[in-house]
Amino acid sequence: MNQPSTSSTLSALPRLTLQETREKSLKRLHPWIFSKAVKHVSGNPANGQTVEVVSSKGEWLGYAAYSAESQIRARVWSFNPQEQIDAAFFQRRIARAWQLRTELFDLNQTNGLRVVAAESDGLPGVTIDKYDTILVCQLLSAGADSWRNEIVSALIALFPEHSIYERSDVDVRKKEGLKPVTGWLHLPREHGEVTIKEHGMTLLVDVMQGHKTGFYLDQRASRAAAKRYAKAKTVLNCFSYTGTFGVAALQGGALAVTNADLSELALSTALKNAELNQLDLTKIDNVKFDVFKLLRQYREQGKQFDMVILDPPKFAESKAQLMGACRGYKDINMVAMQIVKPGGLLLTFSCSGLMEDSLFQKIVADAAIDAKRDCLFIEKLSQDSDHPIASFYPEGSYLKGLVCKIY
Predict the structure, then answer these.
(1) What proportion of the chain, given as a percentage, has pLDDT over 90?
(2) To the nearest whole number, what is the mean pLDDT of the chain?
(3) Which residues are CB-contacts of 320 (< 8 A; sequence separation ≥ 6)?
């Protein structure tokens, strides 16, 4: 049986005891402990404080961050009884995560990367993205929030010349009893705009106003795929955001690109991205319109494209929303297929982590039946390798994509 360190500091930690038989997932190294799995908590831990976790029989299981208000009552930092949760712990974990990225990417070619991918990098609730010389951190759990200073210190030690901006403004913090937090933490700048390099593209990112931490780094490999498939094609880029799929398509030899999005700011950035990459602006049409309505309008007009890229926002935030999300994905994929020219391509995506790959593929298959189109799956796409998926944490796999040949 594992035993915790006998140091006075660690033995004084509050203790979380699990219900009988609820230790199985922890023994498989899954880091989440749900409230219903907790038998009792002793020591009156503060929100975010480190607790030691034991089974109903007293077997030591791990050190975790306590979340007093969340359904996920604790997130395990370490399953090693000899590993203290302190500043050095965060330095080690962040350094290990960064080492992996330097092995995976040529930083002279790609300098927009996810440095830390939360649970998948052993730091639950901690997301850190690097945009050239700006680091953006999102602290989404009570435990991550309580170690803010140590996390920032570790980043400064590893990236001394980088500015650090916090974007802890995500709704999930409410579930942790936390308020939104944004602002510069190190080497502040007047604005949040920065350019990054990606597969031969120069792309503008706004870390203060952009989606997520400023950009969709997880779609890097998918943008590269779009570039491969786009030659001599007319392309409709739905939910285009800042038009980066469109930039990739034009660099790949697309004849024309239509970027469709409801955000005027995003479309103005799309134009800037086109200019940054010295693209032929006569080949680009930026359309401010509701994509759901636009697709139907194109269908009614008989307008078709050689390639449609469909990267909608997340439709399901909870299991209760999954059924409705399935209907939404099916409907929008059906209409998208109907405006693809016979022999053309649909690149379709879901970023809903609750939707498994097999379910998404079934939805697209059902959409093809309703659209009365033949559909061949010719490639599967996923988040790029700076968003790794830990073997013990399948929830880390959330982005799925399909390249579909439509007849």
Answers:
(1) 92
(2) 95
(3) none
Higher per-residue pLDDT: 377 or 315: 377
pLDDT score of 2 more than 50: no
Fold (topology level) of 87-194: Transcription Regulator spoIIAA (3.30.750)
Phi–psi pair at 17, nearest 5 degrees:
-105, 130
Q: What is the CATH number of domain 8-78?
A: 2.30.130.10
Which residues make up the CATH 2.30.130.10 domain(s) of the chain?
A: 8-78
Q: What is the b/e burial string over 325-349, where b = at least 16 CB atoms within 10 angstroms of the residue's CB?
A: bbebbbebbbbbbbbbeeebbbbbb
Q: Which residues contact 300 (CB under 8 A, 6 or more apart)?
A: none
* Residue 231, both tokens: 């030659």
Residue 388 CA from chain centroid, whole number: 11
Residue 364 has which token pair? Answer: 């697209």
CA distance 360 to 308: 17
351 annotated active-site: yes
Q: Give the whole-angstrom CA distance, residue 358 versus residue 112.
A: 30
Per this entry, what is the length of the chain?
407
Q: Are 388 and 104 in contact (CB under 8 A)?
A: no
Which residue among 137, 351, 375, 404 is the active-site one? 351
Domain with CATH 3.30.750.80 in the chain: 87-194
Q: For residue range 341-373, list pLDDT tens digits in order.
A: 999 999 999 998 788 899 999 999 999 999 999
What's the topology of domain 216-406?
Rossmann fold (3.40.50)
Question: CATH 3.40.50.150: which residues of the chain?
Answer: 216-406
The radius of gyration of the chain's CA atoms, rounded to the nearest angstrom, is 23
